[in-house]
Amino acid sequence: MSEIEQTGAIRLALVTGASRGLGAALAEGLAAQGYHVLAVARTVGALEELDDRIHAAGGQATLAPMDVTEPEAMKQMTQAIAGRWGGLDLWAHCAVHAAPMSPAPHIEGRDWSKSMLVNVEVTRGLIAMLEPLLRQRRGTALFFDDARGGQKFFGAYGASKAAQIALARSWQAETVQTGPRVLIDSPAPMPTAVRARFHPGEDRGALAPCRDEAARILSLL
Questions:
Q1: pLDDT tens profile 77-87
Q2: 36 touches 60 (CB < 8 A)
Q3: How far is CA 207 from CA 45, 191, 211, in A?
């Protein structure tokens, strides 16, 4: 992670899955609100483009080209946040795996395993690692529901997203008194790469722009 000058009280926002779609829009919106954004994603080029947009608008960001499925990388990131900033004000979790649509009996084992890894196990691990940092600053964690559970051909994606949100709701109930605050939102349909996999050929002009949904979500804070 790149060095930054620490002057005054920095509000730090971590966005996992920040390279495109809602994650990128949230990162830009947070930077515009004065947060220093720690942007995590695997795609270096998309992160650099995000960084250019943030800096062109007068914001600050630190790029972290990492794979959220690598526990050691996430541990190192957590330690770096603790050592450099001492805590975390906001975590927006946008990283997701969208397995191909398939009838339940024909779900590929690797698609099922990756869905559960990215959408459930990674979420569990990050909650455990980031909760102490969020508590340090009475921070907020943001999760995003996409209620596909039980819909035909959405077995892997629907089950793993339902499990992720069930975990987030348990954490939300457990932390009402102690913090951090946990918010769960259901964004409007947006023209994202994930949605395009599920709805090829859809009129994307009829969908909510990611920037608009990001602004609405950030207004909840």
A1: 999 999 999 99
A2: yes
A3: 26, 6, 12
